[in-house]
Design a protein that fits this description.
With about 200 residues, this protein is mainly α. Helix 1 runs antiparallel to helix 2. The chain is built from 2 helices and no strands. The longest helix is centred in the C-terminal third of the chain and has 100 residues.
């Protein structure tokens, strides 16, 4: 009778161990599911960050091209304005020197030169406006490029943080899978002990 009682007690102990092992395994499996979900979320976030980064690089490249074109345009406008200024000065000098010669021809020539001076002044004004607009556009593009560079730096820092989190989540998943395997092994051993005890009791 004492042996039967002792065997029954050992069966109960092993059964308790099995219950505890199964409970621990269920908890670990639930935790693993959460960890797997975290890994998937982080992978999606990294993919989205890569897409944003590619788009930002394309935007930066396009803006850099626009900036170069505007700088070229600005240089051309400045050159044109200087040429007009030079022509304007030359005409003024010619008008100042144009008092000699045939009075009628000289007057016609003066009128033509005055007309040309007015045209040049108008062209100069147009070019000055264009130049001011170009400078404004250049400032705007430079500002946008700085914003993009700052955003790219922020995105890079965020991506590094996400990669670190993903690495930790992956390690945690691997660790939990190993723990589940160990629990399964302990569970199998406890089951084998339980069967042996029950077999011994039956005999």
């Amino acid at each position: 009778e004492g042996d039967a009682s002792d065997a029954s007690e050992r069966i109960n102990d092993v059964q308790s161990q099995l219950n505890a092992l199964n409970a621990a395994k269920r908890k670990l499996e639930a935790d693993l599911q959460h960890a797997t979900s975290d890994v998937e979320d982080l992978t999606h976030e990294l993919k989205a960050a890569d897409e944003r980064s590619k788009k930002a690089q394309l935007d930066a490249s396009r803006l850099a091209d626009e900036l170069r074109a505007e700088q070229e345009h600005s240089q051309n406008t400045e050159r044109r304005a200087k040429q007009l200024e030079q022509q304007f000065k030359e005409l003024q000098l010619r008008m100042e020197d144009g008092g000699s010669g045939d009075a009628r021809g000289s007057r016609r020539n003066m009128e033509r030169q005055e007309q040309r001076i007015r045209e040049l002044e108008n062209e100069k004004n147009v070019e000055s406006q264009k130049s001011a607009e170009t400078v404004k556009q250049l400032r705007k593009l430079e500002r946008r490029l700085k914003e993009l560079a700052f955003a790219a730096e922020e995105e890079k820092r965020e991506k590094e943080k996400q990669l670190d989190n993903l690495d930790k989540a992956n390690k945690k998943s691997i660790q939990m899978k190993k723990q589940i395997e160990d629990l399964e092994e302990a569970n199998n051993q406890a089951l084998a002990r339980l069967r042996k005890l029950q077999h011994d009791v039956d005999e």
